[in-house]
Structures are given as structure tokens and as C-alpha cells.
Design a protein that fits this description.
The chain is an alpha/beta fold. The protein contains 11 helices and 10 strands. The strands form 2 sheets. Strands 1-2-3-5-7-10 form a 6-stranded mixed β-sheet, with helices on both faces. Strands 4-6-8-9 form a 4-stranded mixed β-sheet. The protein is globular and about 65 Å long. Bound molecules: octanoyl-coenzyme A. Octanoyl-coenzyme A binds next to helix 2, helix 3 and strand 6.
């Protein structure tokens, strides 16, 4: 892997997009490696992922403009699909993914962060969808996920005007959950990931699926999705241990993902 590094720290996996000379811009090779990295993750040994960018300046400065500049409409659509397939893999990945946004998150960078479950960022982070200034629409899910994450009006303003926003504004509009000084970003992401990893993994995965799937349907169907996933937790070893620990007034003896 030339552009992606993966480190396993206990139950937490850290994926770093590592192409600092181009501010971690996403070309086909980066997307291919990211896809292969996700496929290689051991879901028995990993309970939460952190996605970040190498260096102190940029998370991901977008899709690679050089690579896109000569595409035909058909090739553009195909490139969009490559990104969309990988981002959808992140969005539907069985375990939670935290985006630790350490600088520029523009175009495809903002879009990949939005495919993660949770976004936190550093004070120097800049979010935006500059796509229309390049003569294209957002192409890795930006028109869809930004409008769902913040208000449709704010998403439209950001996308139509191509105006970048700083970390404090991203916090105000709900695009990120928290802002940290740069040096505190990864420790905060790891602390959050550890907090997730110590919960019952089957239940956490069921929560992700219930929230994601439920948001796509009406409330009558959504509540049934929850009922089924709720039911699926019973008689797991972790449910039995979690409830026994409460009733016996003791701490859980480590969830087993069983
Ligand atoms: N693509 C390719 N190279 C890039 C990109 C990018 N998105 N961003 C930065 N780089 C490269 C620069 O070309 C430069 O390379 P070099 O040193 O060889 O000249 C290097 O990174 C450093 O960049 P700068 O010198 O520009 O650094 P600055 O600090 O002056 O500026 C910025 C930083 C503001 C982030 C600036 O680099 C910038 O504006 N970058 C482009 C941001 C952008 O417009 N991103 C959106 C791209 S479009 C997109 O993502 C669409 C996604 C959907 C695609 C769907 C496909 C069909």
C-alpha cells in the first residue's frame, strides 16, 4: 500500500490517507487501496475505525483534479461510481467509523468524512464543496449526504456558492460533533473509539444498522427495523453478561463479541 496506512491499536483500527504531496487528494489508486484496506479488516478483532489524513494541513483536499480534468462524461460517471462504492462501504461498514478531520476537507474530502458515522475536527479544519467552481457537481455523495446531515438550505448554500467553512461554523451547523486543537484531535478520536470498543460489539453494530437503515424508510417501517435488531441481541453471550453484571452489581467482565 503506497497511499494508505493501517494501524491496529487493540480493538481500534486507524486508517490514514497518506498522500501529503497532494494534500491527500483522492485519485483512483488511493480509492483502490482504501477499498482493499476496508476489505482486509478483521471484524472479529476490530470494533471501531478512525479515518484521518497524513500531515498537519489536510484531511483530504478532494478528488484528484489532475486525474479528473480530461475525463469524458462516461469516464466521469465511472470515476464517481468508484468513489461512491468505497464511501458506501464506509457508511455501511459493520463497525462505527470516526472521521478525525485534521485540516482541509474539501469536495471529496468533505464527502468521505460524511460517509463516516461521526466527525470530529481540528481547529484548522476547513470544510466545503468547491465543486461547482470547477464546473462539476459534488460526485462522491455530497449532494445527498450534506443535505441529510445539515439543513437542506445550508447544504444548498454551501454547494451553490462553493464557500468553504471553518471548524467553528462546521460545529454550529452540526457537520462535526466537536473541535479540538490539532494535537488533541487523535487522542480525542482514540478516546471516543475506545469508549465505543468497550461496549457490547453486537449491540453497537446493530445500533449502526438500525440508525442507517431506519433513516431510509418511514417511521412505521423504521421501528420494525429496530425491533428486529433489538431482538437479535438477546441470548448473545454479551447480553447475558451485560445484564447479569448489572443485576449482580459488578462490572462487565469484558464483552466478547459473541
Ligand atoms: N487534486 C489534485 N492535487 C491537489 C488537490 C486536488 N484536489 N488539492 C491540492 N492538490 C495539490 C496541489 O496541486 C499542490 O501540488 P503541487 O505542489 O504539485 O503544485 C499540492 O497539493 C499543494 O497544494 P497547494 O499548493 O494548492 O496548497 P495551498 O495551501 O496553497 O492550498 C488548498 C490548499 C486550498 C486546499 C488548495 O490546494 C485547493 O484549493 N485544492 C483543491 C481543493 C478542491 O477544489 N477540492 C475539490 C476537488 S473536486 C472534488 O473533490 C469532487 C469530488 C467528486 C468527484 C466525482 C468524480 C466524477
Amino acid at each position: 500500500m503506497g497511499f494508505i496506512t493501517y494501524e491496529q491499536e487493540g480493538f481500534v483500527g486507524v486508517i490514514t490517507i497518506n498522500r501529503p504531496k497532494a494534500l491527500n487528494a483522492l485519485n483512483s489508486e488511493v480509492l483502490k487501496e482504501l477499498d482493499a484496506t476496508l476489505d482486509s479488516i478483521d471484524l472479529d478483532a476490530t470494533r471501531c475505525l478512525i479515518l484521518t489524513g497524513a500531515g498537519e494541513k489536510s484531511f483530504v483536499a478532494g478528488a484528484d483534479i489532475g486525474e479528473m480534468s480530461t475525463l469524458t462524461p462516461e469516464e466521469g460517471e465511472a470515476f464517481g461510481k468508484i468513489g461512491n462504492d468505497v464511501f458506501r462501504k464506509i457508511e455501511t461498514f459493520p463497525i462505527p467509523v470516526i472521521a478525525a478531520v485534521n485540516g482541509f476537507a474539501l469536495g471529496g474530502g468533505c464527502e468521505i468524512s460524511m460517509s463516516c458515522d461521526i466527525r470530529i475536527c481540528s481547529e484548522n479544519a476547513v470544510f466545503g464543496q468547491p465543486d461547482v467552481g470547477l464546473g462539476i457537481t459534488p460526485g462522491f455523495g455530497g449532494t445527498q449526504r450534506l443535505a441529510r446531515l445539515v439543513s437542506p438550505g445550508m447544504a444548498k448554500q454551501m454547494i451553490y456558492t462553493a464557500r468553504n467553512i471553518k471548524a467553528d461554523e462546521a460545529l454550529r451547523i452540526g457537520l462535526v460533533n466537536a473541535v479540538y486543537p490539532l494535537e488533541e484531535l487523535m487522542p480525542a478520536a482514540k478516546k471516543m473509539a475506545a469508549g465505543i470498543a468497550k461496549q457490547a460489539p453486537i449491540a453497537v453494530r446493530a445500533c449502526k444498522k438500525a440508525i442507517n437503515d431506519g433513516l431510509q424508510v418511514d417511521m412505521d417501517q423504521a421501528i420494525v427495523i429496530e425491533e428486529k435488531l433489538f431482538g437479535s441481541c438477546f441470548k448473545t453471550e454479551d447480553q447475558i453478561e451485560g445484564m447479569a453484571a448489572f443485576l449482580e452489581k459488578r462490572k462487565v467482565e469484558g464483552f466478547k463479541n459473541k
